Structures
1.
Amino acid sequence: MKRGGLGRGLSALIPGATDQGGLLEVPVGAIGPNPRQPRTEFPEEALAALARSIREVGVLQPVVVRRRDDGYELVAGERRLRAARLAGLPTIPAIIRETDDAESLREALIENIHREDLSPLELAAAYQELLEELGATQEIVADRLGCSRSHVANTIRLLSLPGDVQQLLAEARIQAGHARALLGLPGDDARSTVALRIAAEDLSVRQVEELVRTYAQTPAADPAPRQARSPRERETAMNEVQEILSEQLATRVQVLMGRRKGRIVVEFASLEDLDRIVSEIVGSGPGLAPE
């Protein structure tokens, strides 16, 4: 399983925690519920989304448990534990804590988060831990860390990105600025497509923001006829179509526009390459290239 998590130094954030030789992998069936868990509702859709993320990038932040005679009792991490079960994980990374003082745990996390070299997703998971599991508010977290409430909110929103985009972020193939810009796109398909372009073409954050802005404006109803676009706008649109088709077909594609009609030129290196391209266009069946 892919692991993106908070393994490095997380025990330093948790008072009274032990992690002999690193994080402990605990069987999910050995962890009992926290009887003091304030949350009683866990929406199925949100848990399913978290389970998909766990399958893609692993558990970003370990749960916190304490020992009991018959196993372990959960201190923090109810959503992650439920989602890990839903994802079919046999074990989950855990940190053992000797006490269960939630106030002490919350204060220690707030106090020490800014001292750790956490990745954007790790930071997002830590913020979410504070808000959803330990009862802090965005205002409290922002005030204690010396940042804005919107920064906390936007960082947590990174966890709503599709799993493949989170994986690119975890591997540092895209940066946090790229990921935040992707949140402006309306759906997971668009976010995944643009994220792959960022990684493949090494786009800057400014370029991504412009792509997102263009994408957001395109679907909007516009009473002006398409011919009313300026030459520069048409050229930009054609270039974007060329890039999308070239990436999809893995070959050079030209979109040529005349006064009334246009044409698409797709290059191929051999008959075998033509067969591959045709298969890409018509579906995953046999190609239609001549023998």
2.
Amino acid sequence: MNIPAFAILGHPNEGKSSVVSTLAEDETVSISRTPGETRQCRTYSVTLQGTPRFKLIDTPGFQNPAAVLDWFQSHQGPEAEIVSDFLKAHQGQERFHHDMELLRPLSDQAGILYVVDASRPLREVDRQEMEILRLTGRPRMALLNCKREGSSYHEVWKDAVGRRFNIVRDFNAHHATFSERIHLLEALKVLNQAWEAPLSEVIEALQADWQRRISESTLVLLELLRDAIHHVHHHRMNANDPMDQQKEAAMEGYRKDLRKMEQRARKSWRALFHHQTLPGGEDLSPLVGGDLFAEHVWRLLGFSRRQLTTIGAVTGGILGAGADLAAGGLTFGILAAGGAALGAMGGWKGGPNLGAKRLPLPGGRTFASETLQVGPSQDFQLVSVLVDRSLLYLSRLMNWAHGRRDHEAFQAAIRQSEGFVTHWSKEKRDLLLRWFTRHQKLRETTGIDTELKELLERILSELGGT
């Protein structure tokens, strides 16, 4: 099948490889700022559901633009054969190796995406390169990739490329979102009528694939919430160890289990959005990457104290009117669960249960010692905090351009003082609460699961710019 192909041209430090990486959603694309380091064209196929949709060809930079331009301007043959004639005339000449390599895709009918840093001054060598590309006669688009804001050179560049290219677009490969990538493909359709139908199919397929990712991301989040509120951690007791130490060990085991659940979800999300190398744990900001049960996390994320108090009063004490919020909203009730009581903890309510009981083994046997059980959670705030941390993480992940390699900036981008759910409408808060109570009471959940899934899909679609 003949699919559209686009040669990405420009200087290495202008961001052309970043454009390839972002458009192909491929974080393995090598990004080099050293002129001359790339000697061969590298082709990246954008494939959806096993079918190649279009190709992006990362090319070397020009080696001798002045000499190439002189040859093009003195060419006497048919205009349509200027590129192939140049390749034949200079075959085997190392001096023109880079120039021939970058022009070769154009002899195979590839379109041109010329990437320039419009925040720097326009040079004579730039005019030479642009004139060469104009003389090729191939459909061509110029991408103005401003690497510094507030540049006074943008209009100069815009005028220069406007004289030599069919279409000019501003496109920052380090900040391009999904919708901006789609708009670029829409513009490419205009370059060549033969590309209109296949690129329309590409756009439709990409949009469907994006919606699939959002839907699957939502299912991962719902699974995380269900697993978290139903989780039970067992800690085998030892009569020789202090009880307080064993209770803390049981609690820490429970907390560790939930941290692992959250990390599994983030790993799934990174796979869905093709961001395998981005950080997902403690190397993120303390709010999103730090301890799930840290006090500052529960103070800044999830529902506000006022919202929690209202929810607790309305629901007959899911949180408890006297819920202790001193530990960031997380409290652990200490209850007896079929064994020796471990002691009262005042009026604490909420949090996972902790109790002692004998666990049955096959054949009717039991452990020789009692086992501490932590969970399942009774704390609605756990759900709201998990939702908040997940939305904060996903909002950055979905919109992170694959052409970026500064992972420190990804970490910094999540340093947000507050989350999303505290700004939710009453209808959204009530829906999450109904979902929690239905699961907590082990009632039929199919309908409420669907409602919450649809809500979260809408939120993720808005966060992803669709």
3.
Amino acid sequence: MDRRSVLKYSFSSLAATALLGSGIREQLLDKATHTAAILTENANDESYWQLVKNQFDFEKGLYYFNNASLGPCPKLVVDSTNQFRALLDGFPSKYMWGGWQKEKEEVRTKVANMFSCDKEEIALIHNTTEGMNIMAFSMDLNPGDEVILGNHEHPSGTVPWQHWQEKKGIKLVRPVLPILPESKEEIVEVYRKAITPRTKVISMVHGTNTNGMILPVKEISQMAHERGILVGVDAAQTAGTFKIDLHDLECDFYAASAHKFLFAPKGMGIFYAKQESQKYLKPLIVSRAHYTDESIRRLENYNTRNYPELLGLGTAVDYYNLIGAEKREARMRDLKHYFRSALESNKKFKFKTPAAKELSCAIQNVEVVGRKVGEVKNELFDKFKIDCRPMSGYRINGLRISLSVFTTKSDVDYLVNALHKI
């Protein structure tokens, strides 16, 4: 089937039972079909990406370059999530406890297919922070054991280890990562030197929150496993930006927020644990007898949860597949090159993100030389209504610019012109 047919088929399978008899199934299918028609029958040029942007309802005049903090939902995801919420409120007990179990498992399958893994390796959680807590809480470590955490970890990736393990006498090793490495091996070597006979776990980001640097998870996982070390990954900044095959990455655990580059409803996250490593995991929350479940579902012990958001995640994956992983990645790499080439020759700007393809993608960090980044950020918003994230630590002093599929080259031109004026 062509991509439009795939979307309609996929979305129909979710809507068929979830919305049967509600009178809104056909409406949503029409919207899905219309969206598919727009995004599959136009050439892959700048007009195509303007059509993608039109699928998002931004505040008037806003130029949004802060997707790495929080992403928007396209209209299709907003509409479907709202319809699921209306259905739940129409018959609460039916859909909360049992009515949507089949649909929930369909979402799990969609997520697993997206990440090229088995559905029995995917838990549908709330966000990356929860996933990192599951990892840190679960590990049965002894005083003197060591966990490696690079210095660019997000607080949500370090605090769980501090809370659940450090106070037990576990040593947290904090190697310093280079800001602008020239190769993946340069990063691997940092972790190699940090390993000792007491190292039990490496917890690492896939993409740094600070400057968008992509870390070589596969190479580090291979090195770690040769020494019997587990590897957990914080993927908040990479999931949805380029094609990710979790089996190929070879990590043990992988946590991601779906509300950034996946454009899913806020409050949905994804947790992966490869089959042979699930034996290490314990549920962070328990209710009733579900904690005795030996499958990865034991990590979803919420009893009551926001099912409309979960089903909305399924629609977000449909939307992701509609554009396609390869097309999305190619677009973001094209935007990266377009943005960097507009500023790299000007000595007033200094990039704090490595340029190599394998070391960065959708997130770029640039310094306005001689200016404090907080002041620059405020001036961009006050004068030009450009929203981005200032990063002042790690000797960066730069603006974190998040590029996404709703970003047009016209948007980048506007940002570049504003930076020149500042």
